[in-house]
Design a protein that fits this description.
48% of the residues are buried. The protein is built from 9 helices and 7 strands. It is globular. A 7-stranded parallel β-sheet has the order 3-2-1-4-5-6-7, sandwiched between helices. It is an alpha/beta fold. InterPro entries: NAD(P)-bd_dom_sf, Sc_DH/Rdtase_CS, SDR_fam. This is Oxidoreductase, short chain dehydrogenase/reductase family.
Length: 279
């Protein structure tokens, strides 16, 4: 029996990367997975990276799962509302929301530096705006629209992808502030959702072998890296936990969850959990 059989999940931003890995793992675990993303044609991604929402669907199906793609730009509220309306019309419920979509990574194509900013005053204001509008705000809107559907079920769950930059002061002003805001948003949501038995958590990956990371692989130490599906296995473990409310409001690290729940990466390895000091 697949642990999430009969569950309905939505993963935002799943054309590639961590979102795609989460969709694959959820589908393999038996959930009916809806995914959103902007890319519907290979080679047309704004990030110049491979992957489309339709390719993600095909790979979920190959794993024996069920997946539905919805083209959606999460910076456009009407498109997000349409996505949730479709989920409601087809299922009348939602069990799992994974807020993975994010903005502000345009540095891959706009020619500006990201990890080693030359002072926040040198960075385009558009990066701040994108991280808050297409990142924090986008996750807030999805959560707002998801809650009425999540309330139809017991032990529902909102997982928001975040990162250790929230706990550091040297990862860029826009990025660090946005991730800290995201974590605090999740904690506040958890407080209000507790009486409705809906859990909300922040999930931190480590160094994940996404398309963008592998593009720069020669410059990185991948010895303790994680596959996108590894983050998906963390999501499956959380969604399968009947005591998930005990974790609501917390920041959780995927590799620590692997140790707690007893799962490994797809290659059988057990990545070492990182801390804020490691990144």
């Amino acid at each position: 029996m697949k642990p999430l059989f009969g569950k309905v999940a939505l993963v935002t931003g799943a054309s590639r990367g961590i979102g795609k890995g989460i969709a694959l793992s959820l589908g393999e675990a038996g959930a009916k997975v809806y995914i959103t993303g902007r890319t519907v044609e290979e080679g047309k991604s704004a990030s110049c990276l491979s992957g489309t929402i339709h390719q993600t669907v095909e790979e979920v199906i190959k794993l024996g799962g069920e997946c539905v793609a919805i083209q959606c730009d999460h910076s456009i509220d009407s498109e997000v509302e349409a996505a949730f309306n479709r989920i409601n019309a087809e299922n009348k419920r939602l069990n799992i929301l994974v807020n993975n979509v994010w903005g502000g990574y345009e540095h891959y194509t706009d020619g500006t530096e990201f990890w080693h900013e030359n002072g926040f005053w040198t960075v385009p204001i558009s990066r701040w705006d994108a991280m808050f509008h297409s990142g924090v705000r986008a996750n807030y809107i999805s959560s707002v629209l998801a809650v009425p559907l999540l309330m139809q079920q017991e032990d529902s769950l909102i997982i928001t992808l975040s990162f250790f930059a929230a706990q550091r002061n040297d990862k860029g002003v826009a990025y660090g502030t946005a991730k800290a805001a995201s974590d605090h948003m999740v904690a506040c949501m958890a407080e209000e959702l507790r009486e409705h038995n809906i859990a909300a958590v922040s999930l931190y990956p480590g160094l994940v072998r996404t398309e963008s990371v592998m593009k720069a692989a020669k410059h990185l130490d991948l010895s303790n890296s994680e596959s996108p599906q590894f983050i998906g296995r963390a999501v499956v473990a959380l969604a399968s936990d009947t005591d998930i409310m005990k974790k609501s409001g917390r920041v959780l690290v995927a590799a620590k969850l692997a140790q707690e729940y007893g799962f490994t990466d797809i290659n059988g390895e057990q990545p070492r959990p990182l801390t804020a000091q490691d990144v």
